[in-house]
Design goal:
With 249 residues, the protein is an alpha+beta fold. The protein is built from 6 helices and 11 strands. The strands form 3 sheets. Strands 2, 4, 7, 9, 10 and 11 form a 6-stranded antiparallel sheet that branches. Strands 1-8-3 form a 3-stranded mixed sheet. A two-stranded antiparallel sheet has the order 5-6. Strand 5 and strand 6 form a beta hairpin.
Protein backbone atom coordinates (compact mmCIF):
# COMPACT_ATOMS: atom_id res chain seq x y z
CA UNK A 1 0.00 0.00 0.00
CA UNK A 2 2.81 2.39 0.91
CA UNK A 3 4.47 1.93 -2.45
CA UNK A 4 1.21 2.53 -4.27
CA UNK A 5 0.87 5.92 -2.56
CA UNK A 6 4.47 6.76 -3.43
CA UNK A 7 3.84 5.82 -7.07
CA UNK A 8 0.69 7.94 -7.19
CA UNK A 9 2.60 10.85 -5.65
CA UNK A 10 5.32 10.59 -8.27
CA UNK A 11 2.78 10.53 -11.11
CA UNK A 12 1.08 13.61 -9.68
CA UNK A 13 4.40 15.37 -9.32
CA UNK A 14 5.35 14.61 -12.92
CA UNK A 15 2.02 15.99 -14.07
CA UNK A 16 2.71 19.18 -12.12
CA UNK A 17 6.15 19.46 -13.69
CA UNK A 18 4.69 19.01 -17.17
CA UNK A 19 2.02 21.65 -16.66
CA UNK A 20 4.53 24.09 -15.20
CA UNK A 21 6.86 23.56 -18.14
CA UNK A 22 4.06 24.25 -20.60
CA UNK A 23 3.12 27.42 -18.72
CA UNK A 24 6.72 28.65 -18.81
CA UNK A 25 6.98 28.02 -22.54
CA UNK A 26 3.70 29.78 -23.27
CA UNK A 27 4.69 32.72 -21.08
CA UNK A 28 7.72 33.48 -23.26
CA UNK A 29 5.62 35.25 -25.93
CA UNK A 30 3.26 37.20 -23.65
CA UNK A 31 3.37 40.90 -22.86
CA UNK A 32 5.10 42.22 -19.75
CA UNK A 33 4.88 45.34 -17.60
CA UNK A 34 7.75 47.65 -16.72
CA UNK A 35 7.52 50.46 -14.19
CA UNK A 36 9.71 53.56 -14.61
CA UNK A 37 13.41 52.54 -14.72
CA UNK A 38 12.40 48.88 -14.99
CA UNK A 39 14.36 46.62 -17.34
CA UNK A 40 13.50 43.50 -19.30
CA UNK A 41 16.19 41.23 -20.71
CA UNK A 42 14.67 39.39 -23.67
CA UNK A 43 16.28 36.33 -25.21
CA UNK A 44 15.34 35.77 -28.84
CA UNK A 45 16.05 33.46 -31.75
CA UNK A 46 16.23 34.87 -35.28
CA UNK A 47 16.23 33.46 -38.81
CA UNK A 48 17.70 34.84 -42.03
CA UNK A 49 15.32 36.52 -44.47
CA UNK A 50 17.64 37.40 -47.40
CA UNK A 51 18.57 34.25 -49.31
CA UNK A 52 21.93 34.49 -51.06
CA UNK A 53 23.62 36.72 -48.51
CA UNK A 54 25.94 35.65 -45.69
CA UNK A 55 24.85 35.00 -42.13
CA UNK A 56 25.64 38.12 -40.04
CA UNK A 57 28.37 37.57 -37.47
CA UNK A 58 27.20 40.83 -35.89
CA UNK A 59 23.82 42.55 -35.91
CA UNK A 60 22.40 45.86 -34.77
CA UNK A 61 19.41 46.40 -32.51
CA UNK A 62 15.90 46.28 -33.98
CA UNK A 63 15.33 48.71 -36.86
CA UNK A 64 11.70 49.36 -35.89
CA UNK A 65 10.13 47.05 -38.48
CA UNK A 66 8.80 43.50 -38.56
CA UNK A 67 8.85 40.72 -41.13
CA UNK A 68 5.79 39.93 -43.29
CA UNK A 69 2.95 38.20 -41.48
CA UNK A 70 3.64 34.84 -43.12
CA UNK A 71 7.19 34.89 -41.77
CA UNK A 72 5.89 35.86 -38.34
CA UNK A 73 3.41 33.00 -38.47
CA UNK A 74 6.16 30.58 -39.47
CA UNK A 75 8.29 31.67 -36.50
CA UNK A 76 5.37 31.25 -34.12
CA UNK A 77 4.53 27.82 -35.54
CA UNK A 78 8.15 26.70 -35.25
CA UNK A 79 8.26 27.85 -31.63
CA UNK A 80 5.02 26.08 -30.71
CA UNK A 81 6.23 22.85 -32.30
CA UNK A 82 9.73 23.08 -30.81
CA UNK A 83 11.33 22.94 -34.26
CA UNK A 84 14.23 25.28 -33.46
CA UNK A 85 15.83 22.93 -30.92
CA UNK A 86 17.13 20.65 -33.68
CA UNK A 87 19.32 22.32 -36.29
CA UNK A 88 18.11 20.02 -39.10
CA UNK A 89 14.47 20.85 -38.39
CA UNK A 90 15.35 24.52 -37.98
CA UNK A 91 16.89 24.47 -41.48
CA UNK A 92 13.53 23.34 -42.86
CA UNK A 93 11.94 26.28 -41.05
CA UNK A 94 14.46 28.53 -42.81
CA UNK A 95 13.62 27.04 -46.18
CA UNK A 96 9.93 27.67 -45.44
CA UNK A 97 10.62 31.31 -44.56
CA UNK A 98 12.45 31.92 -47.83
CA UNK A 99 9.63 30.23 -49.76
CA UNK A 100 6.97 32.26 -47.95
CA UNK A 101 8.51 35.52 -49.14
CA UNK A 102 8.83 34.17 -52.71
CA UNK A 103 12.62 34.15 -52.78
CA UNK A 104 13.82 33.08 -56.27
CA UNK A 105 15.93 29.89 -56.43
CA UNK A 106 15.73 29.21 -52.69
CA UNK A 107 15.61 25.54 -51.62
CA UNK A 108 12.11 24.11 -51.28
CA UNK A 109 13.05 21.79 -48.41
CA UNK A 110 11.30 18.59 -47.44
CA UNK A 111 7.87 17.72 -46.03
CA UNK A 112 8.53 19.62 -42.80
CA UNK A 113 9.21 22.83 -44.73
CA UNK A 114 5.94 22.35 -46.60
CA UNK A 115 4.14 21.77 -43.30
CA UNK A 116 5.44 25.08 -41.95
CA UNK A 117 4.44 26.85 -45.18
CA UNK A 118 0.92 25.44 -45.03
CA UNK A 119 0.47 26.36 -41.37
CA UNK A 120 1.90 29.85 -41.79
CA UNK A 121 -0.23 30.57 -44.87
CA UNK A 122 -3.41 29.62 -43.02
CA UNK A 123 -2.56 31.39 -39.77
CA UNK A 124 -3.61 34.84 -38.56
CA UNK A 125 -0.95 36.68 -36.58
CA UNK A 126 -2.21 38.61 -33.55
CA UNK A 127 -0.20 40.65 -31.08
CA UNK A 128 -0.64 40.32 -27.30
CA UNK A 129 -2.04 43.18 -25.26
CA UNK A 130 0.17 46.22 -24.79
CA UNK A 131 2.52 48.33 -26.87
CA UNK A 132 5.17 46.95 -29.19
CA UNK A 133 8.67 47.68 -27.91
CA UNK A 134 9.38 49.03 -31.40
CA UNK A 135 6.61 51.61 -31.16
CA UNK A 136 7.54 52.44 -27.57
CA UNK A 137 11.13 53.07 -28.66
CA UNK A 138 9.96 55.39 -31.47
CA UNK A 139 7.92 57.33 -28.88
CA UNK A 140 10.96 57.61 -26.58
CA UNK A 141 9.21 55.60 -23.87
CA UNK A 142 11.84 52.85 -23.81
CA UNK A 143 15.37 52.23 -24.97
CA UNK A 144 16.49 48.98 -26.60
CA UNK A 145 20.09 47.83 -26.45
CA UNK A 146 21.58 44.73 -28.04
CA UNK A 147 23.51 42.69 -25.47
CA UNK A 148 24.64 39.60 -27.38
CA UNK A 149 24.38 37.68 -30.65
CA UNK A 150 25.78 34.38 -31.86
CA UNK A 151 24.95 31.64 -34.39
CA UNK A 152 23.21 28.47 -33.24
CA UNK A 153 24.99 25.23 -34.08
CA UNK A 154 27.53 24.47 -36.78
CA UNK A 155 27.36 25.68 -40.36
CA UNK A 156 24.92 23.68 -42.49
CA UNK A 157 24.78 22.78 -46.17
CA UNK A 158 22.26 25.40 -47.30
CA UNK A 159 22.49 24.55 -51.01
CA UNK A 160 24.61 22.17 -53.04
CA UNK A 161 27.37 24.79 -53.23
CA UNK A 162 26.99 26.88 -50.06
CA UNK A 163 27.40 26.20 -46.34
CA UNK A 164 26.66 28.74 -43.63
CA UNK A 165 24.80 29.41 -40.40
CA UNK A 166 21.22 30.53 -40.87
CA UNK A 167 19.77 31.23 -37.40
CA UNK A 168 21.10 32.61 -34.16
CA UNK A 169 20.33 33.57 -30.59
CA UNK A 170 20.71 36.94 -28.89
CA UNK A 171 19.58 39.15 -26.05
CA UNK A 172 18.27 42.69 -25.87
CA UNK A 173 17.56 44.89 -22.86
CA UNK A 174 14.45 47.06 -22.83
CA UNK A 175 14.47 49.92 -20.31
CA UNK A 176 11.42 51.99 -19.42
CA UNK A 177 12.61 55.62 -19.51
CA UNK A 178 9.12 57.10 -19.21
CA UNK A 179 7.44 58.28 -16.02
CA UNK A 180 4.68 55.66 -16.10
CA UNK A 181 4.25 51.89 -16.20
CA UNK A 182 4.35 50.37 -19.68
CA UNK A 183 2.80 47.08 -20.82
CA UNK A 184 5.00 45.92 -23.66
CA UNK A 185 5.74 43.04 -26.00
CA UNK A 186 8.36 42.11 -28.56
CA UNK A 187 6.48 41.40 -31.79
CA UNK A 188 7.30 38.13 -33.49
CA UNK A 189 9.29 38.80 -36.65
CA UNK A 190 11.13 41.79 -35.18
CA UNK A 191 13.84 42.62 -37.73
CA UNK A 192 17.49 42.99 -36.74
CA UNK A 193 19.68 44.50 -39.50
CA UNK A 194 23.22 43.21 -40.00
CA UNK A 195 26.24 45.22 -38.95
CA UNK A 196 27.70 44.62 -42.42
CA UNK A 197 26.43 43.49 -45.83
CA UNK A 198 24.72 40.30 -44.73
CA UNK A 199 21.22 38.99 -44.06
CA UNK A 200 18.55 40.70 -42.00
CA UNK A 201 17.31 38.54 -39.14
CA UNK A 202 13.67 38.01 -38.12
CA UNK A 203 13.48 37.32 -34.40
CA UNK A 204 11.01 35.84 -31.93
CA UNK A 205 11.09 36.11 -28.15
CA UNK A 206 11.97 32.88 -26.32
CA UNK A 207 12.53 34.02 -22.71
CA UNK A 208 12.39 37.12 -20.55
CA UNK A 209 13.81 38.33 -17.23
CA UNK A 210 12.35 41.38 -15.50
CA UNK A 211 14.31 43.73 -13.25
CA UNK A 212 11.79 46.20 -11.85
CA UNK A 213 12.61 48.61 -9.00
CA UNK A 214 9.02 48.23 -7.78
CA UNK A 215 8.98 44.43 -7.85
CA UNK A 216 11.25 41.49 -6.89
CA UNK A 217 13.56 40.41 -9.71
CA UNK A 218 12.01 37.66 -11.79
CA UNK A 219 13.23 35.28 -14.45
CA UNK A 220 11.60 32.45 -16.34
CA UNK A 221 14.03 29.76 -15.15
CA UNK A 222 14.34 30.96 -11.56
CA UNK A 223 10.60 31.49 -11.17
CA UNK A 224 9.82 28.08 -12.60
CA UNK A 225 12.33 26.33 -10.34
CA UNK A 226 10.89 27.97 -7.23
CA UNK A 227 7.34 27.09 -8.22
CA UNK A 228 8.31 23.48 -8.85
CA UNK A 229 9.95 23.18 -5.43
CA UNK A 230 6.87 24.55 -3.70
CA UNK A 231 4.51 22.36 -5.69
CA UNK A 232 6.64 19.27 -5.11
CA UNK A 233 6.63 19.94 -1.39
CA UNK A 234 2.86 20.36 -1.29
CA UNK A 235 2.27 17.14 -3.25
CA UNK A 236 4.62 15.06 -1.12
CA UNK A 237 3.32 16.47 2.17
CA UNK A 238 -0.26 15.77 1.13
CA UNK A 239 0.46 12.16 0.32
CA UNK A 240 2.60 11.75 3.42
CA UNK A 241 -0.37 12.89 5.53
CA UNK A 242 -2.62 10.43 3.70
CA UNK A 243 -0.22 7.56 4.33
CA UNK A 244 0.07 8.30 8.05
CA UNK A 245 -3.67 8.70 8.41
CA UNK A 246 -4.18 5.27 6.88
CA UNK A 247 -1.66 3.72 9.23
CA UNK A 248 0.77 2.85 6.44
CA UNK A 249 3.96 4.22 8.06
Amino acid sequence: MRYRYVAVAMVALLAVLGMSGQAAQAQATKSFTLHPDGKATITFEAFCVNFGKLFPTAINGPDGTVAPDKVRAALEYAQRKGLTADVKQALQVEYAIWQLINTPNSPKGDALAQEVITAATAATVTNPNGTSILEAAKANQVTITLDSWQPIGEKQQITATASDNFYGRGQITVTNISQQAQTLFMPSGTLFPPASNAQNMAGIQTAIKIEDPNLPATGGERGLAFELIVLAGVVLLAFGWRVRRGGQI
